[in-house]
Each structure stands twice: as C-alpha cells, then as structure tokens.
Amino acid sequence: MVSGGARQNVADTKLVPVSEDDDALPTAAEMRSLADQAEAEAAEAEALAAAARARARAIQLRREAEVAEAKNQPVAEEVVAEEVVAEEAKPADVVSAEVHDTPEAAPEETESADEREDLAPEDVEAAESPDEAIEGTAQSDTSDSEASVIDDAEEKPERSRLRWLSRLRRPRLSTVAAAVAIVVIVGALAGSVFMVLDHRHAIEQRRRAAEFTAAARQGIVTLTSLDFEHAKEGVQNIIDVSTGSFKDDFVKMADDFTKVVQESKVVAQGSVQADAVDLNTMTDDSAVVLIASTSEVTNAAGAKQEPRKYRLIVTVARDRGQLKLSKVEFLP
Known about the structure:
The chain is an alpha+beta fold. It is built from eleven helices and five strands.
C-alpha cells in the first residue's frame, strides 16, 4: 500500500489542464522537469506492480505445494483449503502492503524521458495515478492467481482420474504375462481332465461291450446246441438264458420243440465265428449284438454233422443282475 506522503506527492504532481485563454504557459525546462518526475513515479509504480506479481506468484506456488502434500493427508487437506480461502479473502490493500516487505524486482523497460516530453499536458494529467495503477495491477494479479489456483484444484482430480484410467488401459507386461500363463495352465488342466475322463469313458465302454458280447455268445451257443437224449435239459437251458418277450414265446412252444428234437433225433453243436456290439444302442442295461454262428447238425433224416450257418441280431438285456437274451432275429 502506498503511504500517505507518497499519495500527497502524487497529488501535488498532477498537472492542471491549461486553457487556451491562459497567457502564462510553462517553459520547456519546467515541462521537462515534470516529465522526469512523472517518469520516476511511473518507474516506481511499475516496480511495485512487478513486486506484487512476484508475491502473487509465490503465494500461488506455495498453495500448489500445500495441495500436493495434502494428497496423502485427507485431514490436512481441510486445513489447506481453509488457508486458501483466507488468502483469497484478503483485500487488495493487504496484498499491496505485503509487497512492500519483499525485495523489489528489476523494473521493466520504460519509456524514455524524450518520449515523455512529447506528451501533451492533457495526456499526462489523463494518465492513471501511481496509487490507482498499483491497486489495479495488484487486484488483477491477485484475481489471476486465485483463478489459477481454483482451476488447478479443479483439474487435479480430473488428472488423477485420467492417470488412473490410463493405467487401466495399459496393463504392465508382467500382468499380461501372468494372465497368459494362467490361461495356459487352466487350458492344460482342462485338457488333462478331459483326456482322463475320455479315457475312463472309453475303458468303461469297452468293458460293457465285452460283457454284452460274452452274454450274447453264450446265449446263441446254448440256443444252437441240442441233444435229443437230453432234450428237456437243453430246452430248460435255453429258457434260463432268456428274458422278456423271447422267453415268453419260447416257454409257450417248449413242449412242442422238445418233441420235435426227440423224434428227429437231433444232435447239434453250435459255435460263434464273429460278433460285434452296436455302440449306438448300448446302455448300462442293454445292447444289440450282431452274431455270425455255425451249428453242426446230425439228425434222423440223414444229416451227419452238417454245418449250418446263421446270422442273428441279438438283443441282450439285464435281468436281476444277469445279462440274458431278450430278442433273437434270424437274418436270411
């Protein structure tokens, strides 16, 4: 703030416009002296303005440092905010008073004394007084610093958010490598589990196929092997290896079949040459088996170990824990 003596000096140095009616005009020496005095006062005003700008810049930098330190200290952030509000609430006169305590900065380039001589008295009087220039400069610098501090305070959260988003968009190489390794490991484990399960399924499928094939072979051998001297036992064996509709039909014709075997004196010995399980029909309790069988038949009609070949489609089903013939079809 400019002292009262300085204000009095400035007021004393103001020039009064000279009307055209006045006869006494100032001499060139007096005008030069007044111009030099105005130049000195302007230099002093510019120095004070530069000091005010430097002070405002120092205040701004100190506030930015306090805001930066308050990032990791939520409690201290409130204190810094209160100080910022208190500093912003200071009037321009207080800022000007603080400027006097700081070292004066180097004055900027000013107009030369010769240029001041060219000014008319009316222009010199119309210029702002040093007090008004200082106050206007201090107020503008203070408002600029306050606006910059507010802008910085508003931009800092935005910059932090953008920095955080950029880190999310650009993962580190180690993170990418770890993710790839995890994917590879999970894929390898999944492949291993799938292979183990598939292997177990294949083993279980082969076991069941062998079980159905053995039951079908035994049933066909029993069906194609007969002896007229033991006809009833042979018929009963066929009934024992049968189930379902095939068993019901054979039981109905068992007596007639026994008489035919005894009267024809049939002796037959059956065997199986080939077999295959239809995997598409295989379940836990049933399956369709293709059988190629041969039976050597001897009877009263003159056949003597005559080979007879059969192709059969046999359905094997589980009955009380045992696999038996549930359906037998002879193919031509």
